[in-house]
Structure formats: C-alpha cells, structure tokens
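Example 3.2
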Amino acid sequence: MKRRYALLVCLLTTLAIGCNKTKDTTPANAAHVMFVNGCTATGNIYVADSLKTLSGPYPVAFDTTVGYQSLAAGTEAMLVYISSFGNSRPLQAATATFYANDYYSVFVGGTITKPSFFVTSDDLSAPAQGMAKIRFVNLSSDTLSETVTVGSNLLAVHVGPASCTPFNSVIAGKYAITSNDPDKINSSDTLLARMYVADSIYTVVLTGSRGGDSIAYPLHLSFFLNDPNK
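Structure, written as tokens:
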C-alpha cells in the first residue's frame, strides 16, 4: 500500500514539473498586429521586425490577410519583403510604435512598383447590442476618392489612397457594399450582399486598379473579420 502511495506521489510530482515547463511564447507586454497584403503584382509577401515575422509562418498572397500576431510592445523597424524561390526582395520599410495590449493592422497597398504602407490602431471594442462594426480601407493603386455605402446607408466619403475609415456601427443584417469615386468613370466595385453578424467587426478593402493594371488586377472589394482570438 505504501509503495503504491509513493508511486502515486512520484507520478503527480512528475506531471506537475512537466506542466511547469510549458511556456507561453506570447510576450508579457504583447501588442497584437495583423498584416494585410493589398499590393498588386506582389505574389507572396512577408512583413518582419527585428524579432519575428509578423505575417505568421506562411507568406501572405495578394488580397489576403492573417490573424493578429503577438509581439513585444515598443518601437519597431518593419520591413515588408517579397519571397520568391528562396530569395527575398525588400519592398517597403517603416517604423511604428506598438503599445501593450493594443491591436493594429499593417496595410501594404498600391502596386509592386509604387507601394503604399501604413499602420492603423484597431478599436476592437464590442459593438452595441444588435450592431456590427465595419471600416473601409483604400489600397487601390489609383488616386481615387471613394464614397462607400453599406446597403442604402452612407458609410464614408472622400476615402483617399492609402487611408481608411474608423470602424462604424451598422445594424446587423444582410448588405451589399459599394465603393465609387463620383468624379471618375469605371471606379466602382460592389461586394455582393452577405450577412454582417451582430457583435462582429469587419474590414472591407479596395484593391486593384482602373488604369494600367486593370486587366490583371481590376478594382476589387474583399472583406475579412477582425477577430482578436485568431
């Protein structure tokens, strides 16, 4: 009986030691950063700071994003670069300051020959009951000043290149979203009607061109969910 008890104590002690060895790789003073590739003709892109790749372990293709990645808060020199066949080519660099426990998005837009690059602070506070939050980001390579509607509701006007709106609240429901520069022809695109769910937060992104790159990369609206748990 005593031997069984001693073995049980030994087993529990071993398990406890094993559990204590498990480490959380998230920095204690972490900021949370999401990367969005809206830069035409880039293929696969990474964004990195001095410590880690913010875009996660895999490259981010054009018109896609990754979830929020954790990194130590502070001022970071970030390099956006293209990876192809094992070689990397710098695309754009900038310095940004990230504060602990806050959320950010890093947007790369424009085109491979003339990229744009900016960082936003993301307000992920919950919408009011029965509401969703939506923002619009203009990553087109053209000099468009977009008017944006959600269904029949006006979301924003004069959203210029390499800029975005704040998150705006809308009643949860099914909407089509349209962006258009009233002063320029062929500057409109519509995201087909879909459900925007209560208590959720969304980013709608305009990429592409109505000009020289319009055949390969026409103006295009896409969306993603700002989920702090991914």
